[in-house]
């Protein structure tokens, strides 16, 4: 008698969760290389507001628990960790304005802000880890780490400081320029922002050379010119008829 043999379903591959660690910083500390900073930025993609960069030197004996890439954390968790980082670590923050972004391009403005954040640290670091592919202009040894905010603990801390600092600033800009919803979307090109941009036109806080902003400005200028032409024609008609 032949029995039916049920095939077992293949086991699902386990998802490996990678958390940032202090391994690289600790290795340098053992060599007598300290301070060691991590730096990251927030706000490359938005249509409005500055790029905000942060540099953080963690206290090896007092590292906040739960540090991670800011994008993986809830807003409330970021806010709580921001307060802990500011209370236990050395940090510096720098801003690249929309005008600088328009002048230099987003990459150069971001690298400039990262270098400024490192330079603003209370004690000059001897080694800097920076998130991404590009090194920055600094007197310290600099190491670019792709995906660093998910790998290097000091970069993760910097990502949180940069993100929270920028979010808070965008809420203040929302009070200065109401109607765009900066306090909600923080300047990113979500439908709510695009609708406001098309209705109100760009504000002084928008990045003029970003394509959606430039397109909205062109539309509003065209409408203004058309309105001016119609008004001029109306005046001429009145003068001629008189």
TrEMBL record:
Pfam family, one: RNase_HII
Leader peptide range in chain numbering: none
Positions contributing to a divalent metal cation binding: 40-41, 131
Annotated CDD domains: RNase_HII_bacteria_HII_like
Enzyme category, top tier: hydrolase
Cofactors named for this entry: Mg(2+); Mn(2+)
Molecular function as annotated in GO: manganese ion binding; RNA binding; RNA-DNA hybrid ribonuclease activity
Domain RNase H type-2 stretches: 34-222
Reactions catalysed, as given in the entry: Endonucleolytic cleavage to 5'-phosphomonoester
Keyword entries, A-Z: Cytoplasm, Endonuclease, Hydrolase, Manganese, Metal-binding, Nuclease
PANTHER family in alphabetical order: RIBONUCLEASE H2 SUBUNIT A, RIBONUCLEASE HII
Classification via HAMAP family: RNase_HII_B
Protein name: Ribonuclease HII
UniProt source species: Tardiphaga robiniae
Gene (UniProt): rnhB
